[in-house]
Design brief:
Blueprint: E1 3-8, H1 13-16, E2 20-25, H2 27-30, E3 44-47, E4 50-51, E5 55-58, H3 61-65, H4 69-83, E6 85-92, E7 97-104, E8 107-114, E9 119-121, H5 153-160, E10 173-174, E11 177-181
Antiparallel strand pairs: 1-5, 1-6, 2-11, 3-5, 3-11, 4-10, 6-7, 7-8, 8-9
């Protein structure tokens, strides 16, 4: 099952993703956002309360952002422009896709993307382990890009911000979450947004 999430430290997500009609909800109320109904092209998106200082964005993101790779990278850059920093994580184990992106101030700083051939963009981050520094790496026989580093979105997520699969009693939570729609003026009537 594919999983996509965008992580951002501030509320600029509404402007960056052109979300409308925000409605306060709890973490539990927004958790099943992908199962909520939509109408007239208005898809709900859930923005979590702050979890260890970060807000996560879930649900219907392909309908909100688009399906194209450039649309996704543009969304992460816009989010970072509005929020200072934004991250995106995508993992689809069945298809072999693994992507993580860090953007700051409107530009992608570091990206790893793999489906067939892995690709690293940008300078490695301080916590990454580089392939060329691994004990079993032999430059005479092994090949590696000079910036080849961390290759798993799940690991990067835990190192960069907050991993939603590992939240618990020790996770600092502040405020409430939001449901918002990607189309204005539709409202929430008959959308079955609250469980």
């Amino acid at each position: 099952m594919a999983e996509t999430r965008v992580v951002t430290p501030a509320n600029g997500v509404f402007e960056a993703l052109e979300l409308h009609d925000r409605f306060p909800v709890t973490l539990e109320e927004g958790a099943d956002v992908e199962d909520m109904s939509s109408r007239r092209g208005a898809y709900p998106v859930f923005i979590t309360p702050e979890l260890d200082g970060w807000r996560l964005v879930f649900g219907n993101l392909a309908e909100v952002v688009g399906w194209d790779w450039d649309e996704w990278m543009g969304a992460v850059e816009r989010l970072s422009e509005h929020c200072g920093e934004a991250q995106m994580f995508f993992q689809d184990e069945a298809a072999g896709s693994d992507v993580w992106v860090v953007a700051e101030k409107g530009r992608i700083r570091r990206r790893y993307a793999a489906e067939d051939d892995p690709e690293w963009i940008g300078e490695p981050l301080s916590w990454e382990d580089l392939r060329i520094d691994e004990e079993d790496f032999d430059p005479e026989y092994d090949e590696a890009e000079p910036n080849e580093g961390t290759a798993r979105a799940a690991y990067a997520c835990g190192r960069l911000s907050v991993d939603p699969t590992r939240t618990g009693p020790d996770t600092r939570m502040r405020g409430h979450g939001w449901l918002a729609l990607n189309a204005p003026g539709v409202g929430y009537k008959d959308l079955d947004l609250l469980v």
